[in-house]
Amino acid sequence: MTPPKITIIIPCKNAGHTIQKTFDSIRLQKYKNLECIVIDGLSTDNTLDIIKYNEDIITYFISEEDQSPPDATNKGIKMSSGEIIGFLYADDYLEEYALDDLSKALIKNPNYSIYSYGLSIEKLESKNVIFESSKKKNISLNLNNILFKHVLNHFFRRKIFLKYGDLKSQYFDNTIFFSNDREFMIRLALNGEKNYVIEKVLYRMTTHINSYTGNRQNIVKIRYEHIGIAEFYLNNKFLSAYKRKKLVDFKSHNLSLLLVFYIYKLDLKNIFFIFKKGYSNKKYYWLIDIMRCPVAEFLYRCSVKKWI
Question: Cβ distance 162 to 148 under 8 Å?
Fold first, then answer.
């Protein structure tokens, strides 16, 4: 039996310092029915030279202006012909056995549309692994995990994109949307989709000061994006009481973390703004969340932190 075609989409721009390792991890895969699509956003460093050097493992490649990484990813989805589609970002790499393990899961569990796996995060400079999560309790596709835990570790059947649409390429105010992956997974969870979990680390994410989510300013924007996502879906009057409660809690969680940040910065204007917004969201329960949510975030991160 011919194994299903797997498409890996690599969106990139000015990733010359990391993308060779990304390609090396593709080259190490033993899986034969593989399609590799590279979508470059008009890189001005040596990224294009590295892409050309690795053209023997690339099925399709384009270099043109795009709005954002998810815009590039959406182009790749439209170009793809694989039954299974996954994303590999140019700072990251796959474990050598990743696609073999995915293939086994596809064959043994063919009725799923989403296949999820463990993730680690390492620092580019030191190579230290600072995060590792591969337990089913953290990766299962449910609202609690998708709203409050990490989300970047999935392969999808093509029909998922046909049914639910593309990744959202820009935030509601037309700025870059760092949380596009979380918004997409929330979309799936709200519609009751389930996943099969491979309890092994197959994806290695690299963080550094120049990565999109590697600096404080972007992390603050991500918190505001989460609040905006919650508000967007809370406008749906057909939400069940459970889903509505989870989204209200998600909004409160991110407001609480922003409040702690602004208290640390002694930013009185934003302290007042966030406190008022949190109170309007949950009334007096907000006072409990101010204490509970930062502690819950800390405990989760401790549970998945790679202690040396």
Answer: no
CATH number at residue 115: 3.90.550.10
Give the residue ranges of DSSP H helices in 28-170. 47-53, 69-79, 98-108, 136-139, 143-148, 158-164
pLDDT digits over 85-124, tens only? 999 999 999 999 999 999 999 999 999 999 999 999 988 7
Does the pLDDT at position 208 exceed 80? no
* Residue that terminates a domain, selected from 174, 207, 240: 207
Regarding whether 285 and 245 lie in a shared domain, the answer is: yes
* Residue 101, helix vs strand vs coil: helix
Does some domain include residue 111?
yes
Distance CA 27, CA 92 (A): 14
Measured between alpha carbons, how far apart are the two ends of the chain, in Å?
Answer: 44
* Spatial separation of the C-alpha atoms in residues 195 and 190, rounded to whole Å: 13
* Nearest residue to 168 via CA among 178, 160, 158, 155: 178
* Contact (Cβ atoms closer than 8 angstroms) between residue 164 and residue 190: no
